[in-house]
Specification:
alpha+beta, 8-stranded mixed β-sheet, 6-stranded antiparallel β-sheet, 39 strands, 22% strand, binds zinc ion, glycoprotein, zinc ion binding, metalloprotease, membrane, metalloaminopeptidase activity
Length: 1123
């Protein structure tokens, strides 16, 4: 642990920087004199922000300089001497040339709590002129500069509303021309909330934008105007992996749509300079510009009108630090075998971070062509969306790689990486060169990904019948990566665990890697070729990509049995979609935070599930024909929902005779001849848009109640909502493509329920009916008695009469109906009894998914006896299948994934045979210093048993630090978090945030895993609260990482006290620190629901367990103490 010093202001109670560590590296922009030459300043305040450039300090700051500096003490109240301006101008008048842009330096806290002193060495690019010795430079930086993240203190936010950095003084005493010791005092004062720029509120009220220095910013909306559109970007960028900053210049060719004198585009945290308008045949004209940091916009102001239809080019220079987050142009690092830390500069632009790498029109509908040049050192390589066409040597030994011009695409898909990675390549049958890149140490783990990418890209090329338009596709394993992967066109990026595969990888790793590659490659069509118009329809990208994962892998890798894993997506989506805080698939969004919140289970999983429902309804061939038509019609364009529905309507009237291998004529004739099949093609009145609007434009999903009276089946629908306010379920109506089978026939029957209630008639009376066959539909079903009882009897007598998806679906529905009071808990538990004979992964994991949370809720209420009884019941219920598990890697992928899951469960629940074997294996593995080969699928259980003692935990932690194998590491990491040792859990959390041994990218996983541990849930909650601001800064407000942490840590809380604690913390946040996040509402609702559930059902559960656990209530002697 590094020493920490607490700093508080003596002016207010507000802590200025929270706790800060001396010798933290801090970056500060510094004004550059040489640009000022072009347009002298009238006052330091007036032009500084716009016109100042920057100089550089050398990167080798030495703490020893501390003793050389004399502290220039000054209180904020002291007025700036009149001579400052003169000094400033005098100093500024002397040009400094060179290409450096900013400095980094060490800093510490001066004795005054409101002053931060920083020092380092200023290296001037050229010697200053001897006749004018540089002895003092006083710099007065305005608040805007500091507020706009120009001061970046790792882990701290200088917040505009709470802190005002009033003055920065730099005192330089020249010793020689090149290296000048320098001291800066950053004087901070607490201030009242800023009255400056305000964004339009969610209520629609607007206040005028105010740009820096009180100049009026000429645009007051978050969305850009349509007056000019970009056609082509020529971008040159130079990331410096020594100083960890980058500089660049972009030329943007524009077409003017309406006469205008302003160009509004995006820029975030970039230092902009040298903005020019390039007019053909004329000299370049400098453009004035204004920035509006709150909306991340830049206004370029022209003195002359840019006329409609005209084409212009603007040039902007820019610079910034490589980001310390996971988005924009950010730095990643890895430790080479030699122990040396190596840096990688990589991009992650989706959704709104291209603007943090270069100024651009950063909305998906502003598609343009991109020509990119990257400057690098000879020891590095650069890659981008397109292939490299040439390399030019620059002065000073640097190299410039020039890449081919891209196809028309959105800014969020642009990507470039500078690294020392190696690659392996292969060519697809369609002639596309596929390469997989990884750090030199891990390049041998790329073979599986390369094969998978070749196979899957060929699959999509054939399936969509639209050739992949680029000559190459690179897949890159990035050491630090927030999400799973990113679909940048031609250059997909992945976290290492999502791409690297070794013999030691487990079955679920293989499945995961295949799926993630399938997802990103599907995006090359859905998302890249055809893009949603705006982020409100993100599901058109993500729902499709998620859906196509299953379609493609099912065909290309049938042995992976992906369909065993699809329903899980729908169950997850239904969980958030059953709360009143859910949102429609297509939801209006405006701010970057709101846009980030769209990357959730609703866009991905619900999107995929409703597409699956539509495909089942239309038939797979008709669906395929429709989506190919959609992709062809809208290639290189942007779409809204209705474009998709139109493309899927009247497929048989399509002009295309053969599409994607489907012969239209045969297929449509065939359809007409089969009256029992899907009826869409015979029914001209079928309005796909009307059906699908009910699924995409309203939130939630329906609960269909089925009541059978003889041959008559009465149907009704209502919204399934976990609430104690029934009025919230009113006003919802869906068009539901119902399917069912009966005890008499396995042939799937179909019925489109469009109204609140309806009736259908069976040919004959039946013993049972099962609706939502294979759970192809996104809805829940409640069977009025005796419906449930007949289904339970069926499961108990002959469960294989129903498919495994149907069994999993019934387990899910019956337990979920308990929550809304439609079914009593004992009926759900009664149904679960059949699980003692269940062998298939989906129903078993779904059963555990419903039963395990019950004791998790009790854990939080200190009801140990009942909790142990419940745990005992579940182990007993699944004993047959647990005892059947072999400690090997044999079997199909589903069997292997299930084995890993069951053995972990049994060992954690202290099931003696499991613990014995796992302990024996762990000891042997440890005795051989981890060099014994363990079957991958059982190693998680083995490591988890090992992590229960301090010695075992330390050994595993040490192995984690040294293991090169991503897959083994990820299992060790999970095992470490399941330990009962609280001090170790705390260490694990702290190390994850520190990001040295454990990467910070893994913090969300570690935190959630610790929170599921009965010994760790309080630590996790305290950790989340204590580090909230740092987490928001690192992962991004509104990101799915933040939402997962909030929900994951608190979603099993079940007491009023806990609810209050959660409300108190989130209630104390401001809008800027996340108070309006949707995940907070979700967690409130979930905890309220947990409290209701436990209060209502506990007595019944107790009675039921007393009757059904073999040892009975009094003789309970096995303690299911968690390990
Ligand atoms: Zn995606």
């Amino acid at each position: 642990m590094r020493p920490r010093t607490r700093v508080t202001s003596n002016m207010t109670d507000v802590p200025l920087l929270g706790s800060i560590a001396p010798w933290t590296q801090l970056s500060l922009w510094f004004p550059s004199p040489y640009l000022v030459e072009k347009e002298p300043l009238s006052t330091p305040e007036g032009g500084m922000y716009q016109e100042w450039g920057y100089v550089s300090l050398a990167s080798d700051m030495r703490p020893s300089l501390m003793s050389n500096g004399s502290v220039y003490t000054r209180t904020p109240a002291t007025p700036i001497p009149a001579s400052v301006d003169e000094n400033l101008m005098e100093t500024m008048g002397r040009p400094l040339s060179g290409s450096c842009q900013f400095f980094s330096m060490y800093w510490t806290v001066a004795s005054s709590p409101a002053v931060v002193a920083m020092w380092g060495t200023l290296t001037l690019p050229t010697p200053s002129s001897p006749e004018k010795p540089l002895d003092l430079l006083v710099v007065h930086l305005s608040q805007e500069i500091l507020n706009d993240a120009l001061v970046q203190v790792p882990g701290h936010i200088l917040h505009p509303a709470r802190h005002r950095a009033a003055l920065v003084y730099a005192i330089m005493t020249q010793q020689d021309a090149h290296a000048v010791p320098l001291l800066i005092l950053l004087v901070l004062e607490a201030c009242a909330p800023s009255l400056g720029a305000q964004l339009p509120g969610r209520d629609g009220t607007k206040t005028p934008h105010v740009a820096a220095h009180d100049q009026h910013f000429p645009w007051d909306r978050m969305r850009l105007p349509q007056t000019v559109v970009p056609l082509h970007y020529n971008l040159t960028i130079h990331p410096n992996l020594n100083t960890l900053h980058f500089t660049g210049v972009v030329h943007i060719e524009l077409e003017v749509v309406e006469d205008t004198t302003t160009i509004i585009l995006h820029s975030s945290e970039l230092l902009i300079s040298n903005v020019l308008l390039l007019v053909p045949g004329g000299p370049p004209r400098p453009l004035r510009f204004l920035e509006h940091p709150a909306s991340e916009q830049l206004a370029l102001l022209s003195d002359q009108v840019l006329t409609k239809g005209g084409r212009y080019e603007v040039q902007l220079e820019f610079a910034a630090n490589l980001s310390d987050s996971f988005h924009g142009f950010y730095k990643s690092s890895y430790r080479a075998n030699s122990g040396e830390i190596r840096y990688v500069a990589s991009t992650q632009f989706e959704a709104t971070s291209a603007r943090a790498a270069f100024p651009c029109f950063d909305e998906p509908a502003f598609k343009a062509n991109f020509t990119i040049q990257i400057i690098r050192e000879a020891r590095h390589i650069a890659i981008s969306n397109m292939p490299k066409i040439s390399t030019v040597e620059l002065a000073g030994g640097l190299l410039k790689d020039c890449f081919d011009t891209s196809v028309r695409m959105s800014t969020y898909l642009v990507a470039f990486i500078v690294s020392d990675f190696l690659s392996v390549s292969q060519t697809t049958q369609h002639g596309v060169k596929i390469s997989v890149y990884a750090s030199p140490e891990k390049i041998h783990q790329t073979t599986y990904a390369l094969d998978a990418a070749v196979k899957l890209l060929d699959f999509y090329d054939d399936f969509f019948a639209i050739p992949y338009p680029l000559p190459k596709q690179d897949l890159v394993a990035i050491p630090d990566f927030q999400s799973g992967a990113m679909e940048n066109w031609g250059l997909t990026t992945y976290r290492e665990a999502g791409l690297l595969f070794q013999p030691k990888s487990s079955a679920s790793d293989k499945l995961g890697i295949t799926m993630v590659i399938a997802h990103e490659l599907a995006h090359q069509w859905f998302g890249n070729l055809v893009t949603m118009e705006w982020w409100n329809d993100l599901w058109l990208n993500e729902g499709f990509a998620k859906f196509m994962e299953f379609v493609s892998v099912d065909v290309a890798y049938p042995e992976l049995q992906v369909n065993d894993f699809f329903l899980d997506k729908c169950f997850n989506a239904m969980e958030v979609d059953s709360l009143s805080s859910s949102h429609p698939v297509s939801t209006p969004v405006e701010t970057p935070t709101q846009i980030r919140e769209m990357f959730d289970d609703v866009s991905y999983s619900k999107g995929a599930c409703i597409l699956n429902m539509l495909r089942d309804f239309l038939t797979p061939d008709a669906f395929k024909t429709g989506i190919i038509r959609y992709l062809r019609r809208y290639s290189y364009q942007n779409t809204v929902n209705s474009h998709l529905w139109q493309s899927l309507t009247n497929v048989c009237q399509s002009d295309e005779f053969e599409v994607g291998g489907v012969k239209q004529r045969d297929f449509c004739l065939e359809g007409k001849l089969q009256p029992g099949g899907s009826k869409w093609y015979t029914d001209d009145g079928l309005d796909i848009r009307a059906i699908m609007d009910t699924w995409t434009l309203q939130e939630g999903f329906p609960l269909v109640t089925v009541e059978v009276k003889g041959r008559e089946v009465r149907l009704s629908q209502e919204r399934y909502l976990k609430t104690d306010d029934p009025s919230l379920t009113e006003g919802f109506l869906w068009q539901i493509p119902l399917t069912y089978i009966t005890s008499r026939s396995n042939a799937i029957q179909r019925f489109l329920l469009k109204t609140k209630t309806d009736v259908l008639y069976l040919d004959e009376e039946v013993e049972w009916l099962k609706f939502n066959v294979n759970m192809s539909g996104y809805y829940m079903v409640h069977y009025q008695q005796p419906g449930w009882s007949s289904l339970i009897r069926l499961l108990q007598s002959n469960h294989e009469a129903l498919g495994s998806n149907d069994r999993g679906n019934l387990i899910n529905n019956v337990f979920q109906l308990v929550s809304v009071g439609k079914v009593e808990l004992d009926m759900a538990l009664e149904l679960s009894l059949y699980l003692s004979r269940e062998m298939e992964i989906l129903p078993v994991t779904q059963g555990l998914g419903e039963l395990v949370p019950l004791y998790k809720l009790m854990e939080k209420r200190d009801m140990e006896t009942l909790e142990n009884q419940m745990k005992g019941y579940i182990v007993e219920l699944l004993q047959t299948i647990i005892n059947k598990q072999q400690w090997t890697d044999a079997g199909s992928v589903s069997e292997r994934v299930l084995r890993s899951y069951l053995l972990l469960f049994a060992c954690v629940r202290n099931h003696p045979p499991c613990v014995e074997t796992a302990s024996r294996l762990f000891n042997s593995w440890k005795d051989l210093d981890g060099n014994m080969s363990l079957p991958s699928d059982v190693s998680l259980a083995v490591f988890t048993i090992g992590a229960q003692t301090p010695e075992g935990w330390d050994f595993l932690y040490e192995k984690y630090g040294r293991s090169p194998d991503t897959s083994v590491k990820s299992r060790i990491k999970t095992a470490l978090s399941i330990s009962p040792l609280k001090d170790k859990l705390q260490l694990l959390l702290e190390e994850s945030l520190r990001g040295d041994v454990l990467k910070t990218q893994d913090l969300p996983h570690v935190l959630i895993s610790v929170s599921k541990n009965r010994h760790g849930y309080k630590l996790a909650w305290n950790f989340l609260r204590a580090n909230w601001h740092a987490l928001i800064k690192k992962f991004g407000e509104g990101s799915s990482s933040i939402a997962r942490m909030v929900n994951g840590v608190t979603d099993q809380y079940s007491t009023v006290h806990m609810l209050k604690e959660v409300q108190e913390f989130f209630g104390s946040l401001t809008k800027e620190t996340g108070s309006e996040l949707r995940c907070i509402q979700q967690t409130y609702e979930t905890i309220e629901e947990n409290i209701r559930w436990v209060d209502k059902h506990l007595p019944l559960l107790q009675d039921w367990l007393d009757k059904h656990t073999s040892s009975g209530p009094k003789t309970q002697n096995t303690r299911h103490e968690d390990l």
